[in-house]
Amino acid sequence: MARDVRTSGGGPGRRDVRKLPKAHLHLHFTGSMRPATLLELADRDGVRLPDALTSDEPPKLRATDERGWFRFQRLYDAARSCLRTPDDIHRLVREAAQEDAADGSGWLEIQVDPTSYAPRLGGLIPTLELILDAVHTASRDTGVGMAVIVAANRMKHPLDARTLARLAVRYTDQGVVGFGLSNDERRGLARDFDRAFAIARDGGLLAAPHGGELAGPASVRDCLDDLHAQRVGHGVRAAEDPHLVRRLADTGVTCEVCPASNVALGVYDKPEDVPLRTLYDAGVPLALGADDPLLFGSRLAAQYEIARDVHAFTDAELAELARQSVRASRAPQEVRERLLEGIDAWAAEPPEG
Ligand SMILES: [Zn+2]
User: How many CB atoms lie within 10 A of CB 157?
Assistant: First the structure.
């Protein structure tokens, strides 16, 4: 399967977005896998993958209805079932870092619910420690700064989320920087997870739940009011409510916008329907992300290409998007400064051609 969309890079009158330093704040663990790696691991284990994971085209998913979301989750589960050994985890993280490095990312926050990997890897704590070890090794080898966001699953009991939050807090000095909440926003209430988020925030973690993807503006408001979100995973549907847009802009809450994912999952029909302009022009800080490149077929730099090609972002605006991603990150001060300087240098250079 050769479906990773490669960006066109620079060209006459335009700078290469792969050389634009940026931070990547919305990337899921299994979803970051290279398609070729998935095929290789499945072959090794004799796993028969669903056709949608082996074809050259990214699967067509209509996750806006529950059946479509369920199908997306089944594909994700099938891919995850191929990650079986500590070496697999190291390989996945190393390749994610390599892909990010090639796309100009200088800081990657990878999101994971360790619960789903724990049965094969010796339990929750060994799994998280293995992931953190892989992150440190990959970061050292690739030069991409990396950290982990531990994400709870809103399809599970809120008590499980609290257990995860307590676990995450124990590893704040070893690379865990945030706490998330993922899966179907239409299920359950954000406030069922308020205690878990309170534990995470009190422990110094950034609150970054998903909202405003499958559900409308109310789900983003719930993230702000009930979970005190400092970043929102997706958040794009906030654009349907001007008051909420103003609130996000005024409070500086960053939306982790994943344009290719939104179209692949049917949140919007076409790339031009993703309200990137609405949010950006209103002053909502944005951090573009790839979400699940394994399933959606494009990585980080491709999201900036969409902003340029579909939404007419100028190079100066792309540079500002990159700055917003860095500012919203939990990267250490020296990394932020280095990336921001690199962004200024990118924007100051004459375009190619
Ligand atoms: Zn996501």
Answer: 12
